[in-house]
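Figure 2 data, in text form.
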Amino acid sequence: MFIPVQHRDSKPLPEVRAIEEPLVIDRASECHVTPADVAARMVDYLGRPGDFNTLEPSAGTGALVTALLASGHSPNEICAIERHHKLAGVVRRLGVPVLQDCFLDYAARIRGQVAFPRIIMNPPFSQMRKHIKAALSLLARDGHDEPATLVALVPITFEHEGAETLEFLPEDTFTTCRVRTKVMRFRP
């Protein structure tokens, strides 16, 4: 008994790609990744792209940096700071220079010497008040007509005189923690 064999057209095999090592974020880093849709809205709240040096003091995995780049901000005008070695490497791959440093130490060193007209941040919640205070100490118009602006994702319980709450985020915004959060804008 013979069974006819059907010949199949040979199709090219899919390209084999190297599997990137998964990024494991240790709990001590307090990195809670800002969801892409929230990051995009935060960038919108920051203001139009332009000739503004923009600080991202807790760059993490680069969610806010990615949103800045997607909205037209130049990588040459973004100052990203991330102390965690692997996380800093992820942000560098976005084409943005990263200072691998503790933001609080960085702010103390440059205070009075460097100013940023735009700051966007999702600070570590355990030291959030210190990070907001340090960021505000670096916020200034720096020769621009538009007001200096800081947009931050903070716990819902945080209040600051003169800051406006732009939106309250859903309870499930972060999968790694159950902190209720909101987005605030500061314009001193």
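Caption note: The first strand starts at residue 54 and ends at 56.
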